[in-house]
Amino acid sequence: MSGIQSERAGRVPASRRIALWTLTALSILLLALIGVRLQASGLPIAIWWPAAGVSLAFALRVARERRWVVIVLIFGLTAVANAIGGRPWQLCLLYGAFNAVEIVLVVGLLSRRDSTFRLDSLNAATRFVGAVLASAAVAAVGITTANVVVDGGGFFPTSVVIFASHSSAMMLIGSLAILPRDGGPRAHLAELVAHVLVVGGAVVLAFGPLGYTQLSFLTFAALAAGCLRFPLRVAIWSSLITSVAVLLLTLTSGGTAKLGTVGSPEAAVTLVVFMSAIGLFTVLVSVARFEGRRNAAVAVQAAEEIAAAERARASAMATQLDLERQREDFVTAASHELRTPVTTVLGYADLLGESPLTAEQRSWVDSTRRGAARLAGLLDGLTQAAAGGERVRLSVDDLIGDVCAAHHAEAVARRTDLVTTRSGLHVTAVESDARRALWSLVANAVTFAEAGTVEVSARRAGDDVTIAVSDDGPGMSPTTLANAFQRFFRGPEAEGRTASGIGLGLATARDLARRNDGDITLTSTPGEGVVATLRLPSA
């Protein structure tokens, strides 16, 4: 069968293809000649036709464009075999024609949806069995009718034998050519030996010298065990060999006589119906079991992939938590180490500010104090971002007023006007988080709107309150706007500006806002300033 499969895939050299076709043709002819010799008393036809199975296998596996050659070959070989068997030439031609029609019907029904039909699901097995039974019925009616017209004889026993003999051969032999790759567990030698002994015992008990035919159901039980345990190909071969054994025991009277004929039409009907039932049972049960194993394997694989993804997610979460812990440890340590010198700088700046200084010296001290105060605020923000707190109801007007008051000196130094508008609104947030987030926005606006105007206003937006901080500074380029929330990012607009920070303010502010179910957004047109909007839940 593998050679036929390769031939259809177009991978076989011409010499090998010729040898393959010749061997297959000889096999069909030989099996047809054997079938002609398998007779039953009172019946003008063979009681089993294995050539139908090989013919179907060849037609299913050969390339589509060469199938017509196979059909012609089946017609000719079947006619020749019957002629050698001594049948009238009219019957030889009719038998050949109906055998060819039978194969055409099966192939046509199976190839209607898919040119590469496989027995890989119960639905496919049902289609296969249905196509085989339908085509065998057509062949049985045609051959029996031809036989009645030419030679006379009865219609019922002959048609039943043809139907059952052809269907069993096609199911047990033809199915071998369209089996999928079975990745299930391999059959162990000990299991195979035990299976052979059990099936052989059941067959001999029912069809051997003792003739306990009422126990023939034991054969089905043994074959069912094989269908449920072994790979597809092993199960079907087991049933095929069992059917041949039953046929030979029947033809030899239970193994007590030479090869002869079946004693009566009734016995022939019982025999071939039994063989056909084995074929139907084996195909449906073994393919259903294959589909179940495959679906179970897919489910297991999916579960393993989900488990692997969960393990990866847990590992990533653990890594993230570890990094977060390290970040918090670093922030805490850095804030602690830097706070002392910053406090010292602020203290000495205050002392100098109280001393008699020239105007130029006082401007130097004020600049130093503003820088130190800004650094102290940054340290406070980092500490608060790591610490968190409890959410409370906050007055937006008080929040804006406190933050703008803290930046008044800086705004005056930069000749920037700070304009606020009262709203009467309230938000729910951690006070330090909200204050620090707004502090960063106002600090940026005052820095960039040098000798300009910064406006801070609030309004209701659904269930939230938005606090907009707008300036008329140089604005942001699209690139700067896209990266504004990246830590340690500083756009070209910040170059050359005093106390412009290190690129942590906006990122920290947004983290604080999001921790309180809010957010910060930026809009800007180059040359027209920036509008930074802090959104927090309304109280």
UniProtKB/TrEMBL annotation:
Residues 333-539 form the Histidine kinase domain. It is found in: Cell membrane. CDD domains: HisKA. It catalyses: ATP + protein L-histidine = ADP + protein N-phospho-L-histidine. The chain crosses the membrane at residues 20-40, 46-63, 68-87, 93-112, 124-143, 155-177, 189-208, 239-261, 267-287. PANTHER family: SENSOR HISTIDINE KINASE GLRK, TWO-COMPONENT HISTIDINE KINASE. The lineage of its organism: Bacteria, Bacillati, Actinomycetota, Actinomycetes, Micrococcales. InterPro entries: BphY/WalK/GraS-like (IPR050351), HATPase_C_sf (IPR036890), HATPase_dom (IPR003594), His_kinase_dom (IPR005467), HisK_dim/P_dom (IPR003661), HisK_dim/P_sf (IPR036097), Sig_transdc_His_kin-like_C (IPR004358). GO terms for molecular function: kinase activity. This is Sensor-like histidine kinase SenX3. It holds the Pfam family HATPase_c. Signal peptide: none annotated. Keywords: ATP-binding, Kinase, Membrane, Nucleotide-binding, Phosphoprotein, Transferase, Transmembrane, Transmembrane helix, Two-component regulatory system. Its EC number is 2.7.13.3.
